[in-house]
Design a protein that fits this description.
The protein is elongated and about 80 Å long. By secondary structure, the protein is mostly helical. It is 70% helix and 0% strand. It starts with a helix and ends in a 15-residue tail after the last helix. Helix 3 crosses helix 5, helix 3 packs across helix 12 and helix 12 packs across helix 13. It has 15 helices and no strands.
Length: 336
């Protein structure tokens, strides 16, 4: 289902959430494909089959990170509980140590995450944990103690399930995901996580938002549906197979520029955009154009994104006129 920015605003909240989840998933898949295409072009011995396997492995690593961020929330709570127990066991604990505020460690959502068998089975099967990153957990815990939002949350006389949820969402979105310490650890652990944190963080927030009292944790799937798996593999494969032809098109429409001096990443982004526009007849051209312009802003400069926008806009118009871009399906009237 294709939805533009204006119509998105008119959707009910549940539909907006679904739309956002789909867009997060597809953009991350496009970026994964971009990374592997760049590596494929730079390698002298890369094969299509080998690169496709690495692409899927990269996506699996992102799914690992999704579980790890949720686990990090519970590990911080586990560490907080350990600190409380150590203080309680002193020979002469203070009144506060003897009767600590356990609101954070008793958070209902943390219990729901900890009790989820599917979540725990995944962690065990994939052998992923923060067991070697105790300093990261300690550091985030100390930051949380100094955090005004935490102090206000702990000071309330009582809190509802929704207030517990809002706090945990803010903890993830405002303290954990932006953490420079977390980013450093992830860069050291895996090259596949270098650009994942923002997208995976959004998935974590949406997972927490969907939690209901008395309900089981609903983890997002690695792919929204089978179409997503097919999409990313086909996008990668078709760009490899037709890349040379599309580079020539880009060269033709960049006649006022020195093609040889264009950034390799800019050219590759445009190749992928053309591939998607031509080979995926159910994705609106407008969506494709917007997505790759946003990706260009992240991986290139503002000037590059404007250049890419201008080239693709003219190129897509010609490909439509030549009937090489043909869109079919519900909601795509006017795309042909």
């Amino acid at each position: 289902m294709a939805i533009d920015k204006e119509s998105e605003k008119e959707l009910p909240l549940r539909a907006q959430l679904l739309f956002l989840l789909i867009m997060i998933s597809r953009r991350l898949l496009r970026i994964k494909a971009l990374h592997l295409l760049y590596a494929y072009r730079a390698s002298e011995d890369a094969t299509l089959r080998k690169s496709e396997k690495e692409l899927m492995f990269s996506i699996e690593k992102s799914y690992d990170l999704y579980h790890l961020i949720l686990l990090l929330i519970t590990d911080i709570a586990r560490y907080a509980e350990q600190r409380i127990e150590i203080a309680r066991s002193k020979y002469f604990p203070t009144a506060e140590e003897a009767n600590p505020n356990t609101r954070f460690i008793d958070n209902t959502l943390i219990k729901i995450i900890n009790d989820n068998s599917d979540f725990n089975r995944y962690l065990e099967t994939r052998k992923v944990s923060w067991s070697n990153e105790e300093e990261l957990i300690k550091g985030l815990y100390r930051e949380m103690l100094e955090w005004e939002i935490y102090q206000e949350f702990m000071a309330q006389p009582e809190v509802s399930f929704e207030e517990e949820k809002r706090f945990l969402i803010r903890l993830a979105a405002e303290l954990i995901i932006p953490s420079e310490s977390l980013e450093t650890v992830l860069e050291e652990q895996s090259i596949y996580w270098n650009d994942d944190l923002e997208f995976i963080g959004s998935m974590v927030v949406k997972t927490l938002e969907r939690l209901k009292t008395g309900r089981k944790l609903q983890m997002m799937d690695m792919f929204s549906n089978e179409d997503d798996r097919v999409f990313v593999l086909d996008l990668f494969r078709q760009t490899v197979l037709h890349g040379e032809d599309y580079r020539e098109l880009i060269r033709k429409y960049s006649e006022n520029w020195d093609f040889e001096r264009l950034a390799a990443m800019d050219i590759l982004i445009m190749e992928m955009a053309i591939t998607e526009a031509v080979h995926f007849n159910s994705i609106p051209v407008k969506v494709t154009l917007n997505e790759y312009i946003e990706i260009a802003k992240y991986y290139s400069t503002e000037k590059s994104s404007l250049f890419i926008n201008g080239i693709l806009d003219k190129l897509f118009a010609q490909l439509k006129a030549d009937k090489k871009i043909v869109k079919t399906g519900r909601g795509l009237i006017g795309e042909v």
